[in-house]
Amino acid sequence: MNRGETAMQHRLIRRGILLLVLIAATGATVCKADTAALVSAVSELAVRAEAGDPSAQYDLGMRYGKGEGVPRDDRQALFWLKKGALQNHPGSWLALGLLLLEGEGIERDERAAAGWLRLAAVQGSPEAQYRLAMLLQEGRGVGRNMEQAARWFGYAADSGNAAAQYRLGYLTEEGIGVAKNEPEAARLYRQAAETGIHGAEYRLGRMLEEGRGVKADAAEAVAWYRKAAAGGDLYAAGRLAIMLEEGRGADRNDNEAIRWNRTAAEGNIPEAQYRLALMLNEGRGGPKDEALARTWSRKAADNGIAAAQNHLGLMLLKGRGGEKNEAEAATWFSRAADQGIAESQYQLGLMCETGTGMAKEMTAAAAWYAKAAQQGIPDAEYRLALMLEEGRGAKRNDAEAAAWFRKAAGRGIVDAQYRLAVMLEEGRGVRRDESEAAGWLAKASEKGVIDASYRLGSLYRTGRGVQRNEEQGIALIDRAARSGHAEAAFTLGFLYEKGRGVVRNERTAVRWYTQAAENGSADAQFNLGNLYARGAGVPQSFSSALSWYTRAAEQGHGLASFNIATLYQNGLGVTKDREKALEWFRLSSRQGNADADRMAGTLQKEQAQGSW
User: For residue 210, what pLDDT is reported?
Assistant: First the structure.
């Protein structure tokens, strides 16, 4: 190109730049002097760029990329930056790499971007080093390589790049691409946090809260969480809420805690959604709202929070915050149970055993109880022991049942304390030990288990496992009887009838026998019939005696059947009827009464001889 052609080209470039500058200035208040200066500067820059000056090419590309003095045009920016880059201009390498990653109106090219950024990174650009590390970490434009990513983050961090300090801190904390080193991670987080990197503020707060890499300091953790949360870090908002809720590092403040929980929950932080649900459910930090609690619990459950799945299951099972839905409750318990939530495993066992929300399935119930019991749920230990003792859902195993009863008993489950005592007293599944049995019966009795009071009273009366104490034994039996225990009432009736350990009083005996008889005690029904037949403690009444004997006989009481036969044989309280007497003697015989067999034989002989 000759000198004249070159001059003409420069004039064309100046005219084009002038038009662009004027377009850029349209609508803006720009004085004539400023416009003239801008036109002159950009025109000269364009001429130098066209003439091959790499610095001018870079500057012109940057102007197009930012829209400074000319309308923004990423295609023009790409054109000029590439020219500068091809002439080994370091600034152009970085700018071109970023443009290829983020530009508009151009074809983005992560692979090419990585190449240009690597050139700039090698030349020491902290920004290029950081950007290249991000590509290596994410596997964009290059193969994912955490070791190289950590190395480039390190170069940038050493040059003061706060974002790189934060990223390297995370890799160092987790031991990804670099040796795990929590103190070093904390140092890097602090450097980045002090420049306002909210993610670093949050991560530093976690390390301070947990005492990892630094000395635990809840108050400082709260301070960093506050900064990060105020800057929009949702994870920090969630942790800050927990600290305020629990009063760690700051005074407990449920009102502020629920606000931060809500912020994090609305940002779809699952753990915060769950904690917000708990606060709403309990009315902490604001009015109780079970319906809204169920809504947030469902969101957290949908996001996979196992504790929320369990909580939602409980709300559905009990009809809190909405309609009761046992089948759906079982579904959520199942999801939480599969994630190892012991409470859900126990609830599933209970639902399988009782047929709540599903068909009864004893084998599944025992299996779920076993899982929950192995995690230390006392109620599950107790119910598993019951199933093993009774052979429901699992093969009967008294030894294993006793072991689980012992675990549950030790955790304060009173029914387990009673069942363990029974097994110890009877020597089932364990070595017989009436002394230990008495100890467990005492614990259960103190907590209102009337069966335990009765059994313990019996031990004191007989001196088994404890020093014999008739008075204390009768007092315990009396306590059980007054609580409606049929066998205890029968025993008291017997003691008062015979005058054993108490002053003989047949009227009192009748009262206790009646209570036991009305509660289904066949022995009490029989003995009460005897008292009516004798007129002891009550006016004599063979018809009343017959009524009580009949109730006892219907439960298989052989002696009661024998006495009914005797009443019919002798016409006491009924019309004399030897055929009915024979029927009752035969029944008594079948119920195991040898005397009845003899009496039946005698009547049959008399019948055969025609002596009736």
Answer: 98
Tokens of 222: 């709260």
* Residue for token pair 């990513």: 149
Conformation bin of residue 122: beta by default, left when phi > 0, alpha when psi is -120 to 50: alpha
Say whether 70 sits in a helix, a strand or coil.
coil
What's phi and psi for 333, nearest 5 deg?
-60, -40
CA dihedral angle for residue 441, residue 446, residue 447, residue 452, rounded to 10 degrees = 30
Confidence (pLDDT) at 607: 83
- In sequence order, the 6+-apart residues with CB closer than 8 A to the CB of 205 are 220, 221, 222, 223, 224, 225, 228, 236, 239
Contact 222, 230 (CB under 8 A): no
Q: How confident is the model at residue 482, as a pLDDT?
A: 97
CB neighbours (10 Å) of residue 540? 13
Cβ burial, residue 408 (10 Å; 0-12/13-18/19+): buried
Residues 6+ apart with CB under 8 A from 295: 277, 321
Say whether 462 sits in a helix, a strand or coil: helix
What CA–CA distances, in Å, run from 435 to 131, 422, 466? 76, 12, 6
Query: How many helices and strands (H and E) does the chain possess?
Result: 33, 0
pLDDT at 29: 46
- For the chain, how long is the longest CA-to-CA vector? 161
Distance CA 276, CA 259 (A): 9
Q: Which of 528, 518, 532, 513 is nearest to 572 (CA)?
A: 532
Angle between helices 90-102 and 126-138 (to 10 degrees): 40
* Domains of the chain by residue range: 556-612
Q: Decide: 80 and 111 in contact? Cβ < 8 Å.
A: no
Separation CA 178–CA 136 (nearest Å): 14
3-state secondary structure of 449: coil
Give residue 41's pLDDT.
82
Which distant-in-sequence residues (6+ apart) come within 8 Å of 301 by Cβ?
Answer: 308, 309, 311, 312, 332, 335
First to last CA, the chain: 154
Closest CA to 369 of 405, 398, 320: 405
**pLDDT digits over 456-472, tens only?**
999 999 999 999 999 99
State mean pLDDT over 221-246: 98
Asked if 157 and 165 touch (Cβ cutoff 8 Å), the reply is: yes
Type of residue found at 15? R
Please report how the helices 542-553 and 522-534 are oriented relative to each other, as an axis angle in degrees rounded to 10: 160
Share of the chain above pLDDT 90, in %: 90
